[in-house]
Amino acid sequence: GGEASGHLLCLDRATTGDGIISALQVLEVLRRRGITLQDALAGLSRVPQQTINVRVGQGMSAKDIVCSSGVATALAGAQVAIVGRGRAFLRPSGTEPVVRVTVEADDAGLMQATLERLADAVKAAAA
């Protein structure tokens, strides 16, 4: 499995994340495919991405906020605003009382504006 931070878990090889094991796993896949790392990364394009954690009020459920009509409408609007250029999504945290608002787009300004609008809608619902 993997995490957004780039932290890879190879639980069939170790019980915790280990950078050396992860690197060896990548090298093994490249060897099996007969390609270089440069070849594997040729189609990769990096885009600006940012996540804002919006704290939910006491007694409120992050999941209920994500499912609320106002937030659902704001998310749909954000997705339309960046269609074909990025993505926007919300995720209630499983470990703390926050909604994670994430937007990525091919343009940093578009990403930031979309992120702020969506986070504002979540903040309003979480107040």
Automatic annotation (TrEMBL):
One Pfam family recorded for the sequence: PGM_PMM_III
InterPro entries, per database record: A-D-PHexomutase_a/b/a-I/II/III, A-D-PHexomutase_a/b/a-III, A-D-PHexomutase_C, A-D-PHexomutase_C_sf
Alpha-D-phosphohexomutase C-terminal domain span: 52-120
Annotated Alpha-D-phosphohexomutase alpha/beta/alpha domain residues: 1-42
Gene designation: glmM
An annotated Gene Ontology molecular function: metal ion binding
Keywords: Isomerase, Magnesium, Metal-binding, Phosphoprotein
GO biological process: carbohydrate metabolic process
The name this protein goes by in its record: Phosphoglucosamine mutase
Domain of life of the source: Bacteria
Annotated TM spans: none
E.C. code: 5.4.2.10
The organism of origin for this protein: Stenotrophomonas nitritireducens
Taxonomic placement: Bacteria, Pseudomonadati, Pseudomonadota, Gammaproteobacteria, Lysobacterales
